[in-house]
Design brief:
With about 190 residues, the protein is mostly beta strands. The protein has 1 helix and 12 strands.
């Protein structure tokens, strides 16, 4: 399921990037979003997303969260309050950046949950520099990021640099998934 969801996210993100970079517009508009895939787990319940505005005008974004799944291979969205985003709306100054924090309001469960975090461009439209008889089109882009909340109790190995003082403590154990564990394994 997750690979299918990621492929769908990359396809829609690709179109957003083209429009966001101004490749389909006469006015250059660019921004940077990092990361573009958000992964939460019982061990890592908060993630940060940074949006950088290298442009010459401020941009405003409002966030929205939707539960996401793909029954029969098509995207299906539903309203949810399971994720919390701070700030929910922000103006990013020209040349500035904004950090958005994402966390879950739910307890870990036996299944992975998928969401879409939508950054809706709510910037004020700039007036044309000079009136003309030509028509113009303004395009607003929503940036739609996948967010995954990992299932509880799944062991995720992490590499660690340096020597281990106690070789037994550095080996993941099946019972290593509690909040007091300091081993090289973390539970997600």
């Amino acid at each position: 399921m997750r690979l299918q969801l990621i492929k769908s996210a990359v396809a829609s993100l690709g179109l957003s990037v083209l429009v966001g970079l101004g490749l389909w517009s006469s006015t250059a508009h660019a921004l940077t979003i990092s990361p573009v895939l958000v992964e939460l787990s019982p061990a890592r319940r908060v993630a940060s997303i940074t949006i950088t505005n290298p442009g010459d005008r401020p941009l405003s974004f409002q966030t929205q969260v939707r539960a996401w799944n793909q029954p029969d291979g098509t995207d299906a969205y539903a309203d949810t309050d399971e994720l919390f985003v701070v700030p929910p709306i922000a103006e990013i100054a020209a040349g500035g950046s904004q950090i958005f924090r994402v966390t879950t309001r739910t307890r870990p469960s036996a299944e992975e949950h998928a969401y879409r975090l939508i950054f809706e461009d709510v910037s004020e439209l700039a007036a044309p520099a000079t009136p003309s008889e030509e028509s113009s089109i303004s395009v607003r882009v929503n940036h739609d990021l996948p967010v995954f909340f990992a299932a509880a109790g799944k062991l995720h190995l992490q590499s660690r640099l340096g020597r281990c003082a106690n070789a037994t403590a550095c080996r993941p154990r099946p019972d290593a998934c509690d909040s007091t564990t300091r081993a090289a394994a973390t539970c997600g």
